[in-house]
């Protein structure tokens, strides 16, 4: 069971496309995957964490009603060119319907 909890050295190479430890750590960081380093210098990566980050495993049931609607904010980031005002934000937020 212990071996299945963490990715093997071969799996780290497959996931990152890198063989050197430093390059693997950089690739994992860019993917948003947390890692630890053992005393001997080997990277340790949780299999479950990788599955959650890559969308393979669910972290648990999702309450859709509790999710925030970020569509207005995303629209502003794409269209406002840094000139975001509260008036524009409110006007856009009133027109956007929550996702369900």
Task: Tell me about this structure.
With 100 residues, the chain is mainly α. The protein folds into two domains: 2-53, no CATH class; 64-95, no CATH class. It is 49% helix and 4% strand. Strands 1-2 form a two-stranded antiparallel ribbon. A hairpin with a 5-residue loop joins strand 1 (36-37) and strand 2. The mean pLDDT is 75.
What's the topology here?
Blueprint: H1 2-5, H2 9-16, H3 21-31, E1 36-37, E2 43-44, H4 47-53, H5 71-79, H6 86-95
Antiparallel strand pairs: 1-2
Helix pairs in contact: 5-6
Class per helix and strand makeup: mainly alpha
- Total count of strands: 2
Radius of gyration from CA coordinates: 20 Å
Residues in β-strands, percent: under 5%
**What is the number of helices?**
6
First-last Cα distance = 39 Å
- Average pLDDT value? 75
Helix content: 40-55%
Most strands sheet: 2 strands, antiparallel
Total domain count: 2
* Overall shape: elongated
Question: Could you list the spans in which at least 5 consecutive residues all have pLDDT below 50?
Answer: none
Helices and strands, in N-to-C order? HHHEEHHH
Attribute tags:
100 residues; 2 domains; mainly alpha; two-stranded antiparallel sheet
Compact description:
This protein has 100 residues and is mostly helical. It has helices at residues 2-5, 9-16, 21-31, 47-53, 71-79, 86-95; strands at residues 36-37, 43-44.
């Amino acid at each position: 069971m212990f071996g299945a909890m963490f990715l093997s050295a071969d799996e780290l190479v497959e996931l990152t496309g890198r063989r050197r430890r430093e390059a693997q750590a950089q690739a994992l960081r860019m993917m948003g995957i947390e890692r630890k380093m053992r005393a001997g210098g080997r990277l340790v990566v949780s299999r479950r964490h990788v599955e959650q980050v890559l969308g393979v495993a669910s972290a648990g049931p999702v309450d859709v009603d509790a999710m925030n609607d970020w569509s207005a904010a995303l629209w502003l980031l794409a269209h406002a060119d840094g000139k975001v005002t509260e008036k524009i934000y409110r006007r856009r937020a009133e027109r956007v319907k929550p996702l369900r």
